[in-house]
Design brief:
Elements: H1 2-17, E1 28-31, E2 45-54, E3 63-69, E4 75-80, E5 83-88, E6 94-105, E7 122-131
Antiparallel strand pairs: 1-2, 2-5, 3-6, 4-5, 6-7
């Protein structure tokens, strides 16, 4: 019984004296889980994804920054706040590993002196794009 009390006290000490946020329900950026449709070199291709911060009801109060690696020639990406679109007419066929990076900054409408912190401020996800 003493062992359980000691462990409980030690755990409470760690939780309340930790300078980093405790991420039991992690607040962190997240990208859609999505399977890209197959495209071809003769048609305009368009797909869009959304970013959000899970477990954060104020995720509109953050700035979102996207970057993309691995797009085939002829395609580009465009950002509209929390939405990123991959579009264009691909000039080459193949299977492409697309990596989308998302960084967030904020919150900016938080009037508390000590704002809640996120567990992570960035994420990335790998998608597969097939062009025939």
């Amino acid at each position: 019984m003493r062992t359980y009390r000691f462990i409980s006290v030690l755990l409470l000490f760690f939780v309340f004296n930790c300078s980093e946020p405790l991420c039991v329900f992690p607040k962190e950026p997240e990208l859609d889980n999505k399977e890209f449709p197959i495209g071809n070199t003769e048609e305009y291709y368009y797909v869009q994804l959304n970013g959000e911060i899970n477990n954060e009801p104020r995720d509109d109060d953050y700035d979102y920054y996207f970057d993309v690696e691995g797009l085939p020639e002829g395609m580009d990406y465009f950002v509209n706040y929390r939405t990123i679109s991959l579009e264009g007419t691909p000039l080459e066929t193949g299977t492409f590993d697309i990596i989308i990076y998302l960084d967030v900054d904020g919150p900016f409408n938080n009037f508390d002196e000590d704002p809640e912190r996120l567990c992570n401020y960035s994420t990335s996800k790998r998608y597969t794009l097939i062009i025939e």
